[in-house]
Batch of 3 targets.
Target 1
Amino acid sequence: MDLATHQRKLLSLFRSNYQAHPDDDSYIQRIARSKDLKEARGNIFLWRIWVLERTAPLTFALLKHRKLLNQAVTAFIKGHNISPFRETQAPEFLAMLSTHDDSLIASVAQFELALLNVKRGDPGFYVVHWAVEPYSILNSLAKGLPLKDKVPEVAHEIRVSGTLPTQFEIARVHCEHFQ
């Protein structure tokens, strides 16, 4: 086996994207069965948790509340070539979640990603659509408070830009303008 193939298999073993086959060389088979691989995967997972809890706190809190955190972080590890630089991990994680099937998770991730970009000097103007009232949700997530069971389903948008006095503003929108 050539070196590149060997390295791709090892990386895929770390990401849990590859299962050793009987025709793999003995080294790959031994690594696939090793306790060290399991421990390394656990360490990688815990490092991602540590970084994301600090760099994407709103989305992290929502995923934790919805009991989707482990699933989301596992999908992130499996599906992305994650840089070792923690500054790049949150934007990639938030971008992945920005299209989540759960519209609230998608909205929170889009908002947090836009805010992160603006805080890093991005001159862009972002608009994030919400199908629910975002004030109480963002307040609860930011302060670590329980989320309300029922949140009014009223269309809002959050505009994020470095040109705004507080870098973002929340506005209620009429349904015909919400798309």
Note: The mean pLDDT is 91.
Target 2
Amino acid sequence: MKSSFKPVLPKHEMTKKEFGIWGEQVAVQLLIQEGMKIIGKNVRNQSGEIDIIGRKNGVVIFFEIKTRRSTQYGNPEDAVNKKKQEHIKNSAIEYIQSNLDMDIEWRIDVISIQVDWKNNIAIRWFENAISG
């Protein structure tokens, strides 16, 4: 990840939903900077929702974005529990079956965005976080 990436800081008075949207926007900016072509955002199907879908070097990548202001309940990536992983995996498979060639290479990544009370931002990108 390039160290020159500097996202716009979140406002303290954001609602939880606004903060989540901010996190997804930060992730999109980071992914574009890293050479990712964004092919979908907040894609819904019968199995659930995929936060971001990207493509790089012929690989389709489904992203789950988790953004938190506190580690009171663990790190953001800890919220991607087994049940959530199944929903994401099923959503990705359904998307592939409906929209893409079944022989494509794909994976599911998680991007964790942690913002502390001083607005210090830590971004962690977990490749192949959920096996397909």
Note: The first strand starts at residue 37 and ends at 45.
Target 3
Amino acid sequence: MRRIPLLILLCTSIQIILVAALTGPAAAAQATKPVARQADNATLGKAILTNTRGRTLYSLSAETKGRFICTGACASTWRPLTVPTGVKPTGPVKLGTIERSDGKTQVTFKGRPLYSFSGDSKAGDVNGEGIKDVGTWHAAVTGKAAPQPEPQPQPEPPYPY
């Protein structure tokens, strides 16, 4: 009879150890997803954020402190950069998330929600820069663009004729 309680105690201890192992730091690790890159933009002369396909990412100056203005039809022109719930976005700079009113999780940079612009047709376009609406749209700037090297002077030919 004494062996049965010991066996139950042993099984319970193993269960506790297994539960602790499964709910520790490894289980708490959040999934991550690369969503942004940094690119030097010659038009702006600045380093900006782009999505993984090279399209410029923008923010709206009036969207601060969790306030969303770009909803409904606006969100079809200015496409929110979203990630699945529980996924941490990664990129060349620190990114965050905020929940939209539609329940989607939108990526943020410096607290501002990020969008791509439907008027940009290829990587490097910044057609949305400076558009005024209920605020002003700006590319998400991460810094100054890398300086372009000066062209090297070409030697003159020894016989100009």
Note: Confidence is low (pLDDT under 50) at residues 6-24.
